[in-house]
UniProtKB/TrEMBL annotation:
Name the UniProt record assigns to this protein: LacI family DNA-binding transcriptional regulator
The entry's keywords: DNA-binding, Transcription, Transcription regulation
One protein family per Pfam: LacI
UniProt-recorded Gene Ontology molecular function terms: DNA binding
Organism name: Streptosporangium oxazolinicum
Top-rank taxon: Bacteria
Domain (HTH lacI-type): residue spans on this chain: 6-60
Lineage: Bacteria, Bacillati, Actinomycetota, Actinomycetes, Streptosporangiales
Transmembrane stretches, start-end: none
Matching InterPro entries: HTH_LacI, LacI/GalR-like_sensor, Lambda_DNA-bd_dom_sf, Peripla_BP_I
Amino acid sequence: MPMGSVSIKEVATRAGVSPGTVSNVLNRPEKVAESTRARVEEAIRDLGFVRHGSASSLRAGHSRTVGLSVIDIGNPFFTDVAAGVEEVASERGYAVILGNSSGDLLKEERNLLVFAEQRVRGVLITPAGANLAKLDQLRERGISVVLVDHPAERADQCSVAVNDITGGSLAVSHLLSGGAERIAYVTGPLTVRPCADRLIGAKRALAAAGRDPGETLEEISVSVMNARSGQQAAEKMIAGGRLPDAVFCANDLLALGMLRGLLQAGVRVPRDISLIGYDDIDFVSASAVSLSSIRQPTHRLGRVATELLLDECDNPGSHAHQQIMFQPELIIRESAP
């Protein structure tokens, strides 16, 4: 029998279940007992059943897809988040459409438009800016939205984030405990919420230690948060003459670039300058000088955000919006012992 010509009724007969149960396996697999689901999936494979996805999407008004918009898919932080998203989506019978905004608001808007055109069931997004009005437009279309790595500011929004104020405070408190008198904070645009919150935390740590942030903390802003920008920041800092005692970078890619720039100039880390990053991505422990960092539960962020999103999609009438905040962890290695 040719692929696609098999009906749901034939699958139901083969599996010994009702057509409604087959439909649930296809559309809401989590609602079907595991043994029944396995039997239906075996019948689907044996008969070569292929559902007409576009037709079912038109009838339902949405597809079995969710959209994921991130700021920089080249950053392992977002790769790990995306892996958590895909795991849960796959378990629930969904596919993921990925959009990479590169921190560009116009590109982010185009990604959201594509998601809407593809009739996604919901959207997971790490916003590139502070204006979230465009997300309300998605909700008006019946598309659920969950903020990822960005705390919600309203009770009618779901979000999953890490307490970046605490993270910034942990980093700077540790550098102060090591004797730092002057600290540089290398950051991306402060319109990106995590960057701004980490700065707030850094200043709180200084205030708690009786230090004047204006005298102790130097802010170095870059437009792109990657290793190249970190190295350029190091080169600019060295060219300026007076080096800080310590550097706190808003992510590990910046910190790895900073480390390369310092070492190439003969600056000893941590003897001359202590250095701490943020995210604790996989390979920082294997860098030339293993990097101290603030760890985030990236994979769990993706999983929990997707569970929230699909719960809202499947139970819009009873879903309770949640703002989940994880706590970061200081990981001490050679660069800032």
